[in-house]
Write a structure and sequence with these properties.
Number of helices: 25
Number of strands: 20
Strand order of the largest sheet: 5-4-3-6-7-8
CATH architecture of the largest domain: 3-Layer(aba) Sandwich
Radius of gyration: 36 Å
CATH topology of the largest domain: Rossmann fold
CATH class of the largest domain: Alpha Beta
Oligomer: single chain
């Protein structure tokens, strides 16, 4: 607002001075011009009448000569004053119209409106810096959970795209460089309801600046940064960035898990991927044999690093610019991989799988189509760089599609909404395939071929008041109690506790007899709707007592009095 006022006053300074000077001259002149009254006596207009007359005359509105008919001298001065005021108004209005169209003023107005909208948010929200494919996917995912977001994006075309989205909750957006601390502050960095900052721009250095600015200005905020450069990642980590998201490392880890622990990957996909339309299916990539890796850039290097850990897998790398990317210590072929000759040199006819991982979507699709003609039995992994190409990638029917934007958005959504799920998967990696198979079988029986819902619960005053008050008494509540259907205590909700966190202690798949206390956190998995019924139990003391003891507690004052009388009567042997 200060910038807006400064711009207006600076551009309108001369027109306002001209108007003030013209009105001063005309008003003073009117008081000096000689005239006569209705008796024929000499008369001069006083200052008040001169100001009143010039005010309506300057707007070309005529109410006549006041308070007496003017003399020739007065009419001559009025004529001159009329042209002077009209010209002054034309100059001022023209300058004002030019000012309204000024880009600097429009930008100041937009920033002022944006900052005001953000300051009016009185619930937790996340500041998303960058609205490309990844930012759009993340905002979509958070909005589906009715979580508030604020967006800063440097490209106006992407802001225009956001305004056309039909989000259930309004998303304030600003076209600006998010790496500048001023814009971060306008985006709510100093708002007490800001829950975290996510840097998702296409520029690693911009993401670094955002992370540094946030950590210096508001150290208590959670900071998540997208980065695909190890040097920048190390710099971010030195400033205490909480989470560094590299899509290539995440996908390489996923492929590594598929090769070594396929059931663990199936479990992770079922619990974390909420974009799935049907229950998860196992990936089952070839566990041994020759793989052809097309592209040895950032993505290719991450894949190679993980695949070489598998003893029974051999690799051949195809790279079009080896002088720029370098080559690993395995057999390599120079080329793009779109030509049959290049693929044959890489022994595609003997391969069990191919990874099309260049930074060009057309080349990746061409690689896959050519490779399938030479070897129809290939396990196909393809990299999708642009979200707009989703239709043609679906038509390619690859076994695995690596889309960086969705990988990052899904990973960040889990970090922001269910961070305990990250701890659960980290602990699950310490178990063997049999443990994963057992848990998957248990979940399939529980969910009955429906998609799972994952939610967290904390025993505190705000989110679980009934449980919180009960935990302060001698009466203890177990996990089994929370799994009872509040509509009928003889039925159970279709849910399973995956992780219990109590201080520094973390219990994987806790027993139903585990007692809960103040501050405990539980990660749940269950059918859609189970979380809502459980929340009723967490917030309603009467329901909680009914489920834990079987007693129905009267709610009204009259029935509480009747219940107390009956209790006293029975106590005295009545």
């Amino acid at each position: 607002m200060n910038i807006f006022i400064f711009l207006v006053m600076r551009r309108m300074r001369v027109p306002l001075l001209v108007l003030l000077s013209v009105y001063t001259i005309t008003i003073v002149g009117m008081t000096l011009m000689p005239g006569v009254d209705d008796q024929g006596n000499p008369w001069k207009m006083d200052f008040f009448h001169a100001f009143y007359f010039v005010s309506y005359m300057g707007t070309t509105i005529g109410f006549g000569e006041i308070p007496y008919p003017f003399s020739e001298a007065q009419r001559m001065w009025v004529t001159l004053s009329l042209y002077m005021t009209v010209i002054a108004w034309i100059y001022a209005i023209g300058t004002l119209l030019t000012l309204v169209q000024d880009e600097a003023l429009q930008r100041a107005l937009v920033e002022s409106s944006f900052a005001r909208a953000v300051s009016n948010i009185h619930e937790p929200f996340y500041l998303i810096c960058g609205y490309g494919d990844t930012g759009r996917a993340l905002v979509n995912s958070l909005e589906e959970r009715l979580l508030r977001t604020v967006v800063i994006e440097i490209k106006q075309s992407r802001i225009d795209l956001l305004t056309m989205e039909n989000y259930p909750v309004y998303v304030p957006a600003l076209c600006a460089d998010a790496s500048k601390p001023l814009h971060l502050t306008e985006g709510g960095l100093d708002n007490p309801h800001c829950a975290g900052v996510v840097a998702l721009t296409d520029d690693n250095l911009a993401n670094l600046h955002i992370a540094i600015s946030t950590r210096l200005l508001t150290p208590e905020l959670t900071v998540i940064g997208r980065v695909d450069s190890y040097d920048v990642a190390a710099n971010m980590a030195s400033f205490g960035t909480h989470y560094l998201i590299n899509p290539f490392d995440i996908f390489a880890s996923k492929l590594h898990t598929a090769l070594h622990f396929p059931n663990l990957l199936l479990l992770r996909e079922c619990l974390t991927n909420q974009q799935q339309k049907e229950p998860c299916q196992p990936l089952n990539p070839p566990q041994e044999g020759l793989w052809v890796l097309c592209g040895y850039g950032r993505f290719g290097k991450a894949i190679y690093k993980r695949l070489k850990e598998k003893d029974k897998i051999s690799l051949v790398v195809i790279e079009a610019c080896p002088e720029r990317t370098g080559l690993p210590e395995v057999e390599s072929v120079s080329g793009r991989g779109t030509e049959a000759d290049t693929l044959l040199q890489a022994h595609i006819d003997q391969a069990v799988g191919i990874i099309a991982g260049t930074d060009d979507d057309v080349n990746n699709l061409s690689i896959v189509m050519t490779a399938r003609e030479l070897n129809p039995n290939l396990f196909v992994v393809i990299r999708q760089n642009k979200a707009d190409n989703q239709i043609i990638f679906q038509a390619a029917k690859a076994d695995v599609v690596m889309e960086p934007s969705k990988i990052i958005a899904n990973h960040i959504r889990v970090l922001l909404t269910t961070p305990l799920l990250v701890d659960f998967m980290r602990m699950a990696k310490q178990h063997d395939n049999n443990w994963s198979v057992s848990l998957i079988t248990r979940l399939k029986k529980l969910l009955n071929s429906t998609l799972p819902d994952i939610w967290e619960m904390k025993i505190d005053q705000e989110s679980a008041p009934a449980m919180y008050e009960t935990s302060l008494t001698e009466h203890r509540i177990t996990l089994e109690c929370l799994q009872i259907d509040p509509r009928d205590r003889h039925d159970r909700l279709s849910c399973l506790p995956l992780l219990l966190v109590r201080g520094e202690e973390k219990i994987l798949l806790p027993d139903e007899t585990e007692c809960l206390g103040k501050g405990d956190q539980i990660l749940w998995c269950g059918k859609q709707g189970s979380a809502s019924w459980m929340e009723w139990t967490l917030r309603d003391p009467s329901v909680l007592i009914y489920l834990s003891t079987g007693k129905v507690v009267s709610r009204g004052h009259f029935w509480k009095w009747v219940q107390k009388k009956n209790t006293d009567y029975n106590a005295f042997g009545g």
